[in-house]
Amino acid sequence: MNELMLARLQFGATTIFHFLFVPLSIGLVFMVALMETFYVVKGQEIYKKMAKFWGHLFLINFAVGVVTGIIQEFQFGMNWSEYSRFVGDVFGAPLAIEALLAFFMESTFIGLWIFGWDRLSKKVHLACIWLVSLGTVLSAMWILAANSFMQEPVGFAMNNGRAEMNDFFALLTNPQFLVEFPHVIFGALATGAFFIGGVSAVKLLKKQEVQFFKKSFSMAMVIALIAGMGVAFSGHSQAKHLMESQPMKMAASEALWEDSGDPASWTIFAGINTEEEKNDFQIAVPFALSYLAYEKFSGEVPGIHTLQKQYEQKYGEGNYIPPVKTTFWSFRIMAGAGLLMILMSMMALWYNFKERLMEKKGFLRVMVAMISFPFLANTAGWVMTEIGRQPWTVFGLMTTSASVSPNVSVESLLFSLITFTLIYLVLAIVLVYLFVREIKKGTEHEEQAKDPRRSIDPFEKEVMQ
Amino acid sequence: MELSELWFMLVAVLFIGFFFLEGFDFGVGMATRFLGRNDFERRILVNTIGPFWDANEVWLLTGGGAIFAAFPHWYATMFSGYYVPFVFVLLALIGRGVAFEFRGKVKTRAWTKAWDWVVFIGSLLPPFLFGVLFTSLLRGMPIDGSMTMRAGFSDFVNLYTVTGGVTVTLLCFLHGLVFLTLRTVGDLQMRARELAHTMVYVVLAALVALVSLSILETDLFTYHGEITIVMAAFIVISYGVSAAMLGKKRDGLAFFFSGLGIMTTVATIFTGLFPRVMVSSLNSTYNLTVYNAASGPYSLKVMTIVALTLLPFVLGYQIWSYYVFRKRVDGKDMVY
């Protein structure tokens, strides 16, 4: 293993792990804010109970999301110092603004929300959770603006061998950003919704606190359907844009070695042979790729070999083919999981409408399993986006191998990789353990925690021993 | 003034703010071991910083982000050069962050005890490592002509940097103790005040040692000699006044002066560096400065507009959150 491989492995591992928690946080806090809004508007205690119960789970998740995010900010400098030098001018700005605009907002108002139930008026308290929600979205926005620059560099000029920003507005209107941002946010909302839906299904199967969890379930499924549709439409516009910005990623995600011919058919499954650079077999739907790429039933999509020749002419000798199998399959996992999510939320709403949810035990069990699907889709989506961009870190400007820190040794990298992996493993175990515990306890423990307002003098007795 | 100079000041302000704010919550984290006699007291201690610590830590993240945006070369050289120390900082901050959230979630002794240790180590390590980092920055690190730093163990760890690390840790510990005199009641408050009073003298001794070593090991007192001497004297006076105020039970003033001490200490480090951001021990022409490490003028201009627009709001709602939670933590309604 050399430095580059280890640095890539570490970046991949820490980023994927971090991004398990981010979408769940964004989705959950939005739902919690919605629940508290119902509480403030309608005045029904059940909504307050909902906000508190799901809020608890959100906080556990948020804590892990925040701490794993700290690594993300610093490892650009630690592991990718040449990249940081080259694009810090453009890439550092959104990161700094994220901290200034979003992190401060999230962290301050989450503190006010957790500790402020009895100290703030209902409306101010509600405003706090909405500001946290806004903070998470703004945070995603600036990160995606930065990421979009890596997919499609805009608003810069080459100066002294560095990419220097010359148009800030262009960064914020980057066509890549405009399709990527809604896709990620809708995906996050779907993640929160399916989490609430699945956990509610667990409780409904056990017939515990039926009214509470039925209400949570139906609310979640409405959001799930809206978000699912949003994911699909924004995903489609992203695919269409891919044809203009990164045709190689498109070709790789289709395992399209040769030009498709007109009209292009969409491959469902393929036996990809990367050694001989062809597919041993494939099952395809006619016309579908043309539609995906151009929104019409005609049009040829260029293949990997054609693009490789074009890229060689443009960027010089080299291998510009990303890992085809990974890109191909992660795209299918993402899209498949997304479609299933839309279908399941529709069924859920239908059963709910027909008042037949409680009899459909099998369906509820499937909904429990569905908790994992948004995570699968989110991860696969990023794997496709980032691996599909290889060998570039900044498309067309800088390769991954040129981005790595020259002064970080294999030993240092092994040390960090092992310690980060271990601590992440512990975090994951503790998190799941705490989730299961809180869910088992149900909503009752809220009352219990309030109950023993010990009036004894804390300094006289060993109260908690 | 050039924008890159302004940004150096802004980065300095962010780190001064970070040490002033997270300084006391690091200190409170350390105090859980020395001041909290049982779980209930430790819970009170943790709850005194409950609503604040997360936002305090963002000062560091914003400082890091500001360096990335305004001085990409500084960011790249420092973070890759200090790779292993930063791994420890990150591990500590990760553990500490979740420990606050997790420690109260399961009510068994083994569970809380384990997370209490994480809170303690996670609060002790970062200030120590930052102390090491800043003092070694002043002393100079082997940075070559391509702005790449390749340092060995003794560049990081030597008498001077360890003294720096210990001093910064002590400053934070004291600052946390004084903060606790403002946020607790009764016996706990009294013990915090007493320990703080003793700690002031330890801090003063450490500062004297650090200043003496700085004269030997760095150009801190020759490069900007006069102003540095004035600032060093100011630090010593601040802590002296803080001790006197603790003796008179004027805890608010004591906190103000210990805060002034810690802020001036950080300010002195940044003043001593300017206009350098990283000193090369190989050759002074390899120094990274606010001029050769900075972003382009357009980037700096955009960032300046954004920062100056947002800062008043950020400061406003942070101050408001301290106002909302101005009540002392007496153990009646605790979250963590």
From TrEMBL, chain A:
It is found in: Cell membrane. It is a multi-pass membrane protein. Residues 446-465 are annotated as: Disordered. It comes from the Bacteria. Keywords: Cell membrane, Electron transport, Heme, Iron, Membrane, Metal-binding, Transmembrane, Transmembrane helix, Transport. The chain crosses the membrane at residues 20-41, 53-71, 91-115, 127-150, 184-205, 217-235, 329-351, 363-384, 413-436. The keyword Zinc does not apply. Belongs to the cytochrome ubiquinol oxidase subunit 1 family. This is Cytochrome ubiquinol oxidase subunit I. It comes from Halobacillus salinarum. The lineage of its organism: Bacteria, Bacillati, Bacillota, Bacilli, Bacillales.
From TrEMBL, chain B:
The chain crosses the membrane at residues 6-36, 57-76, 82-102, 114-137, 157-182, 194-215, 227-246, 253-278, 298-325. The keyword Translocase does not apply. Keywords: Cell membrane, Electron transport, Heme, Iron, Membrane, Metal-binding, Transmembrane, Transmembrane helix, Transport. It is found in: Cell membrane. It comes from the Bacteria. Pfam families: Cyt_bd_oxida_II. Its main location: membrane. It is a multi-pass membrane protein. InterPro entries: Cyt-d_oxidase_su2. Belongs to the cytochrome ubiquinol oxidase subunit 2 family. This is Cytochrome d ubiquinol oxidase subunit II. The lineage of its organism: Bacteria, Bacillati, Bacillota, Bacilli, Bacillales.
